[in-house]
């Protein structure tokens, strides 16, 4: 039995770009072993919340504790200045859009996700696990990703993120731009990931892809969290089934 502990504890987090404040005074906790949905319409701040946790917004203030260590900043730090420290503390951000290198092979991408010494040492084992999650990649390991379909590229970009030795995976709109059937397949794969003591937050506009499948759903509306949305919006989550 894995002990439930706080992976992420966010208090009073606001963040934005230049004069614009996008997220407002957010408080929430993510526990180990949890798969949480973050649901909100386009432009309401889901990606900005993920970027703030990674230290990638223009500015931010408030507390972000990742595995007990403070990684939030209280001043205008400039995007990316401390991101390596947050990553070292256990964050893997799988951004919206694929952010892949067309000339590199599938295997090169997966290897590049295993960037800590431990993950690198275990990369063979880790790749095997990714291929269990995304079987279509098995035959494509040596193929440059520029030749893959949109769905396959998404598998590569998510697979690369999952190769990391992380305790918190933030996955931004994994189904975006994919045909509905392919998007559902990618979501099925994310649901099949064995989280162990880590946690995963999946941002998604389409609540139907998450309902009944994640442990909790948090709603986001104009930069504010709508509490535990399973109660607020009447979403059905796995716990209630
Ligand atoms: N780099 C940036 N510079 C300036 N404004 C930004 C930047 N990124 C996002 N914004 C603005 O912040 C607001 C929230 O965008 P964000 O991408 O966080 O929303 P979202 O809920 O993730 O929606 P989406 O589905 O489009 O990703 C929008 O008004 C957007 O224009």
Automatic annotation (TrEMBL):
InterPro entries: AAA+_ATPase (IPR003593), ABC_transporter-like_ATP-bd (IPR003439), ABC_transporter-like_CS (IPR017871), BCAA_Transport_ATP-bd_LivF (IPR052156), P-loop_NTPase (IPR027417). SMART domains: AAA (SM00382). SUPFAM superfamilies: P-loop containing nucleoside triphosphate hydrolases. GO terms for biological process: L-amino acid transport. The keyword DNA damage does not apply. GO terms for molecular function: ATP binding; ATP hydrolysis activity; branched-chain amino acid transmembrane transporter activity. It comes from the Bacteria. Residues 8-241 form the ABC transporter domain. Keywords: Amino-acid transport, ATP-binding, Nucleotide-binding, Transport. PANTHER family: HIGH-AFFINITY BRANCHED-CHAIN AMINO ACID TRANSPORT ATP-BINDING PROTEIN LIVF. Belongs to the ABC transporter superfamily. This is ABC transporter ATP-binding protein.
